[in-house]
Amino acid sequence: MAELDIIVAPDPRLKKRAEPVEKVDDEVRRIMDDMLDTMYAANGIGLAGPQVGISKRIIVVDVSREGDGPKPMQMANPEVIWESEDERVYEEGCLSLPEHYAEVVRPEAVKIRYLDRENEIRTIEADDILATCIQHEIDHLDGVLFVDHISSLKRNMIIKKLQKFKKQQAAEAAPA
Ligand code: NI
Fold first, then answer.
1. CATH architecture group of domain 12-173
2. In angstroms, what is the span from residue 153 Cα to ligand 1's centroid?
3. Domain residue ranges in the chain
4. Phi-psi category of 114—alpha, beta or left, where left has phi over 0 and alpha has psi -120 to 50?
């Protein structure tokens, strides 16, 4: 298992629609495991393929609380097949938008169909933070970031700050 580099926005790779997984095989399982490692190392609760430069419809999620023990979920081709009319506001963050947060409104509960590690079709119902997290990760597969759900004013402010942050990082990494 290996840790992968997480892409920070703005980046065209985060805006691309990811390709469906044909079959969950050893290669896909390895990607899923590497993504979980990467997510845990970064203290995240979810990660999507495009965030690590893999344009495939794969997400990993773990919203368990500290002390509860890990509850990793690995999904290929996840899709929302039902969503509640009730909505929920949650302050979201993203490993690709480090240190930025904003309130996002989404359906409170969803039903998701996906392929599991064994390439079996599964359906789950999720609510609360799990529903929010899975919807956030599926958005990534369609090139959508949480800031695309907020006002353009606030979005532009965050993107500008991230641009600056990336420039600084690149300058620090470059030899003098
Ligand atoms: Ni994210």
1. Alpha-Beta Complex (3.90)
2. 20
3. 12-173
4. beta
